[in-house]
Structure formats: structure tokens, C-alpha cells
Amino acid sequence: MSDPQRTYLDFERPIAELDNKIEELESLSNGETGVDVAAEITALRTKSAKMLADTYAALGPWRKTLVARHPNRPHFRDFRKAMITDFAELRGDRCFGDDRAIIGGVGFFRGRPVIVLGHEKGHDTKSRLIHNFGMARPEGYRKAIRIMEMADRFSLPVLSFVDTAGAYPGVGAEERGQAEAIARSTERCLTLGVPMITLITGEGGSGGAVALAASSHVMMLEHSIYSVISPEGCASILWGDSTKNKDAAVAMKITATDLKALGIIDEIVPEPVGGAHRDPVQTIQKSGDAIERALDKFSDLGSKEILARRKARFYAIGRSEV
């Protein structure tokens, strides 16, 4: 049987079949049959590893979307636990309530005091319901604004981790000013006098992502995505057919490679072969190293220079030399 903790995507079926065969042979060799299958196991492992590497080296935009949504990818709670010490969570927007789709607080990143914000999707059915699958309501963005204002007041850099399909589209959220809350959160990111470093860890969906990602330095994990709308939503609007999601994924330029070339993001953090879900520890370590390098670039800058650089960064997007 395959590892119950490992979830294979549809395009990984040939790899899953090889891995199942390896496990069957390992069970056979551990028995009392006296059959020596070590050589065959070694050959199959080599074949599986090569197939995995070849598959992930040639992922298209739609397959990257599936990887970005993989349920076993490290979530904000994993990054926070591994990276941030002495974390103290701050709750509530001081207006309506506390939104669990966005988590924020203060702590230390490798010895530096920081403010931390992130979307949390949850890791099982119960926690996904608690965190609303990472889809924040207005009070989530207003909580983020409150915490960012604290960062400005105490001159603390902000680290944000983005992983959301988008803001929650429910009636209650709209009644409480969803669009206004997202706009003000985005504005607060842009006006911070402290460095803000963002890592897109899975999905960076629509304004719900931008509200925590209008930063000084934006990074993406290699197989994450960042888009104005989901491929399915785009296909429904443009073609009236959500099954054209693959075409939409290609047209929207949602991959880290495309977005880096367009100047929308600044850096790509490599993932282990087979995606972040296969080695979360290595993924988080590389992400932490990238965040530390990014923070170092702003360590000697004053608030005016930090603001000027962020302003120049966003003004440069979409411009071309004539």
C-alpha cells in the first residue's frame, strides 16, 4: 500500500504506481520468502526519482496550480512555528470580531523582532472550517491593518505569507465592506515606513492576496501561483466554460517564472524535487534564508528610502522602454 500521508495528484499516477510497486517488493523482501529483490527495488527507486524530476521540471501552469493547492504543502502555521520564536498572536479588528483566515502577531525571526501576518487554510477538515479555507472576511483585513500600523509605530519589519484562493465572497462579508477593507489593507502595505517582505507559499488569489502582498520585496515558492482570479473563474468569464481552465492558466501568466519576467515579483524560492509537500523542512529552511537576505537589503535604510523604493517598484510594473 502507498504511504497514507502521501497524496498523489492525477498527473503523478505513473509515479504512484512505481512507488506502490517498490513498497510491495520491500514487504516481500522483509518477509520470510527468501527472495532477494534488492536489485529490482534499487532500479525502481532510480526510475521513480527520475520520473519525478522529469515531471516537475516540465510542469505547465495548470499543473503548477494543482501543486500550489496540494493539501500537504506547508501552511502558514508551519512557517510560523519553524521561523518565528516567542510568537504572540494579536486578535481582532477592534470593530467587529476576529477572523481566523488571517493570523498575525509579533515575534522574533532569527533574532530580529518582526511583525508576522499570514493566510491560514487549515490542515484538516476541522481546522479548514475554523480558518475558512484561508478566505478572509473584512475583519481579517482590518486586523491586518491594525497590526501593520503597530509595525510602523514600533519600527518593526513585516513578514507576510500569502496562501489564499481569494477573499471570502459571502453576503455578510460584502455587507461589512469587503472591497473597502481590501483596498485599505493594500494601501497600508504601500505606505509602511518599514520593510515588508512577502512570500507566496501556495495560491496568491486576487485582491485577497494583494492585500497582504503590496510589499517591498515579493517572493514566490517555485510551484506557487499568483493571479487576479482563479483559472476556473477566468475560463467561466471569458469562455463561459470552466473546463477551459488549462487555457486560462496559460493565458494569465500565473507562474513564478512568468511573474518574475514581468517584474511583478522579485525572487523565486526553489522547491525540493516533487514540490514543497515532499520536504516541508527543506522548503521552510530555504524560505527563511531568502527572507533573511531580503531583510538585510533594507537594514540600513530609513523610512523615506524604504517608501521611495517601494513606490518605484510598483510604478515600474507594466512599463516598457519606448
Detailed description of the structure:
48% of the residues lie in helices and 16% in strands. It is an alpha/beta fold and 322 residues long. The protein has two domains: 15-58, no CATH class; 65-316, 2-enoyl-CoA Hydratase, Chain A, domain 1, CATH 3.90.226. Strands 1, 2, 3, 4, 5, 6, 7 and 8 form an eight-stranded mixed β-sheet that branches. The protein is globular.
Outline of this structure?
Helices cover 48% and strands 16% of the residues. By secondary structure, the chain is an alpha/beta fold. Strands 1, 2, 3, 4, 5, 6, 7 and 8 form an eight-stranded mixed sheet that branches.
Keywords:
2-enoyl-CoA Hydratase, Chain A, domain 1; 322 residues; 14 helices; alpha/beta
What integer value in Å does the Rg equal? Answer: 21 Å
The arrangement of helices and strands along the chain is: HHHHEEEHHEHHEHEEHHHEHH
Note the overall shape.
Answer: globular
Question: What is the distance, rounded to the nearest whole angstrom, between the alpha carbons of the first and last residues?
Answer: 60 Å
Q: Using the coordinates shown, work out and report the CATH topology of the largest domain.
A: 2-enoyl-CoA Hydratase, Chain A, domain 1
Q: What is the CATH architecture term of the largest domain?
A: Alpha-Beta Complex
Q: Please give the count of helices.
A: 14
